[in-house]
């Protein structure tokens, strides 16, 4: 079973209470939601959102079975949607949230699947959380060298962004950029491996940057952060787990600004994984949990 990073820390700081409406903005495999359900019974509501419709149906059934088997008085609602749309989703029913949890990482099965997230796995160059969204391959065919280069530089910190962007554009226009292997080759053909990034694979930063770009990850996060004052009940709690400095800096800045505006309180420092969790799951080492509590 997939265990989310900082699972217990995030649930404890979110502090779900009986009767709460809690939003799991990244439903995924339901790890956080399973921990939330017993805490909001009786009369609570769990609203789970995910961009990947292939997860929604199965996880919804599992959560409903959990509610039934434990005789919990909880309503489970799920939507194929981004957390960036939370304002509109709640406005449809005139509700506000008591808690919002967002885990900005992705499950290992996404890396190991055939969606094109990893340069280590052969597959089509899709790289989107929503499998029905326009693929990365199609987006690259219509993108300029400058647009791709900016994404590589800003989202991946890629030193060789100019030459990689040029290589990508040439291959995309000639129809030679359809698979993860094609993209990997577009990078390695212009970045000599011994010179690249102190030992990490030369395609690492490119795959990261293009994933962020094609899924509009930072734009979606900005939309959520901007909506929080309008969607939270008094005393509402927000918990966001990030894995990248670009994400964490946005969360830190937004929480700091709301704190300074008198909307509530954010701890000065994030919660990070303990050593035993990092040893068990090395991918957790970069995780940071930040929380914000709105005034009552």
Verbal overview:
This protein is an alpha/beta fold and 296 residues long. It has two domains: 7-108 and 217-294, Vaccinia Virus protein VP39 (Rossmann fold); 134-214, Orthogonal Bundle (DNA polymerase, domain 1), CATH 1.10.150. The protein has helices at 7-14, 31-40, 53-69, 86-93, 108-112, 136-141, 145-156, 161-173, 180-188, 204-214, 217-231, 245-260, 275-280, and strands at residues 21-24, 44-50, 74-80, 97-103, 232-242, 264-265, 288-294. Helix 7 (145-156) packs across helix 10. The relative contact order is 0.14.
Topology of this protein?
Layout: H1 7-14, E1 21-24, H2 31-40, E2 44-50, H3 53-69, E3 74-80, H4 86-93, E4 97-103, H5 108-112, H6 136-141, H7 145-156, H8 161-173, H9 180-188, H10 204-214, H11 217-231, E5 232-242, H12 245-260, E6 264-265, H13 275-280, E7 288-294
Helix pairs in contact: 4-11, 7-8, 7-10, 8-9, 11-12
């Amino acid at each position: 079973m997939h265990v989310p990073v900082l699972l217990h820390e995030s649930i404890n700081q979110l502090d779900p209470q009986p009767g709460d409406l809690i939003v799991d903005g990244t439903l995924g495999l339901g790890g956080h939601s399973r921990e939330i359900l017993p805490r909001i019974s009786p009369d609570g509501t769990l609203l789970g959102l995910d961009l990947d419709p292939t997860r929604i149906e199965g996880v919804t059934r599992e959560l409903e079975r959990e509610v039934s088997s434990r005789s919990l008085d909880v309503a489970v609602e799920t939507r194929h949607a981004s957390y960036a749309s939370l304002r509109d989703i709640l406005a449809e029913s005139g509700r506000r949230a008591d808690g919002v949890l967002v885990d900005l990482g992705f499950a290992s099965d996404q890396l190991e699947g055939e969606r094109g997230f990893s340069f280590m796995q052969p597959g089509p160059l899709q790289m989107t959380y929503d499998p029905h969204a326009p693929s990365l391959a199609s987006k690259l065919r219509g993108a300029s060298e400058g647009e791709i280069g900016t994404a590589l530089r800003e989202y991946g910190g890629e030193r060789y962004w100019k030459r990689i962007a040029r290589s990508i554009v040439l291959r995309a226009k000639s129809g030679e950029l359809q698979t993860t292997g094609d993209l990997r080759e577009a990078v390695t053909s212009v970045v000599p491996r011994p010179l690249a990034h102190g030992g990490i694979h030369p395609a690492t930063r490119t795959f990261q940057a293009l994933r962020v770009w094609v899924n509009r990850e930072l734009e979606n996060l900005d939309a959520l952060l901007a909506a929080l004052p309008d969607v939270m009940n008094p005393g509402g709690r927000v918990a966001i787990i990030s894995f990248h400095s670009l994400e964490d800096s946005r969360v830190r800045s937004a929480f700091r600004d709301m704190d300074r505006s008198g909307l509530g309180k954010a701890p000065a420092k994030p919660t990070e994984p303990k050593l035993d969790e990092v040893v068990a799951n090395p991918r957790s080492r970069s995780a940071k949990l930040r929380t914000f509590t709105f005034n009552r």
